Amino acid sequence: MRIAVLDRDSGFIQVLSKRLDRLGWEHRVLGSPVPTDAIASMRLSALVVDLAVLGPQAWEWLERLCGALPELGVVVCTGPSTVAQRVRGLRLGADDWITKPCHPEEVIARVQGVARRRRRSTSRTESKPLMAGEVEIRSDQFQAFVGGHGLDLTRREFELIELLAAAEGRVLEREEIYSRLWGYTMVRGDRSVDVFVRKLRQKLEKASPNWRYIHTHFGIGYRFAAESLEVVDPSDVPSSIPAHWDAGDKGELARAQQDGELGARAV
């Protein structure tokens, strides 16, 4: 594992560096923002960044970095923040957000979780499209489509639909979904999985109203299976006797059925 830490908190850096050394991870400390191409040349698995170091340009720098290096795992580790700030950072491309003060073990666990998701993302380029009902899931494009139109999913929503669909009809418990998407154990009472499932379900229902995809198993978790909601019109069901048959044909069929019944009684 090769990571960089963009931070000026000497105490935090010292403690984290010691732990990384014990793990045998390659790591370097960056005391100030560096150009995107310089970070690309480092060939990092992940970057841990304190937005306070970036100052007023923090959001612009983060968006530019995540847009230019989509394969790089980015973990924001910064001081107290508002919900709006955390949401903004995640939407700009950060993979995770940690609030200081924090334990180095948590930082390492978050980085490991991001790295695992990145490895799964790398394997997506070799996977085939998955079809379910009217939905086509394209892992190589990180997107799902209905009738050729993208569903406008967030990164987390796509990871969720991909995970559920890959289970091939198996029920996934909430705890399993959380650990595989966020990379660490779900805290008791956390409703993040339910929130993301609801948002994903709404988008699927809007794009494909005649199908049901995500099924809730109360007290357990969720299952992905495409089920049509269309009601079959009885007039659409073909008759057992072809429409082009004439009366003579129907008479022959009736006699054959009668002979068969008589034969069955004789036996």
Explain how this protein is built.
It is a single chain. The chain is an alpha/beta fold and 267 residues long. It has helices at residues 10-23, 36-41, 58-68, 83-91, 104-123, 155-166, 174-182, 192-207, 247-266; strands at residues 2-6, 26-30, 46-49, 73-78, 96-99, 130-132, 135-138, 143-146, 149-150, 172-173, 211-217, 221-228. The strands form 3 sheets. Strands 2-1-3-4-5 form a 5-stranded parallel β-sheet, with helices on both faces. A 4-stranded antiparallel β-sheet has the order 6-7-8-9, with helices on one face. α1 crosses α5 (104-123). The chain starts with a strand and ends with a helix.
CATH fold title of the largest domain: Rossmann fold
Shape: elongated
User: In percent, how helical is the residue content?
Assistant: 40-55%
Q: Could you give a short account of the major beta sheet? A: 5 strands, parallel
Distance between the termini: 78 Å
What integer is the average pLDDT?
Answer: 83
Instruction: Report the uncertain regions.
Output: 260-267
- Quote the beta fraction: 15-25%
Number of domains: 2
Quick structural summary:
The chain has helices at 10-23, 36-41, 58-68, 83-91, 104-123, 155-166, 174-182, 192-207, 247-266, and strands at residues 2-6, 26-30, 46-49, 73-78, 96-99, 130-132, 135-138, 143-146, 149-150, 172-173, 211-217, 221-228. It is an alpha/beta fold and 267 residues long. Strand 3 (46-49), helix 3 (58-68) and strand 4 form a beta-alpha-beta unit.
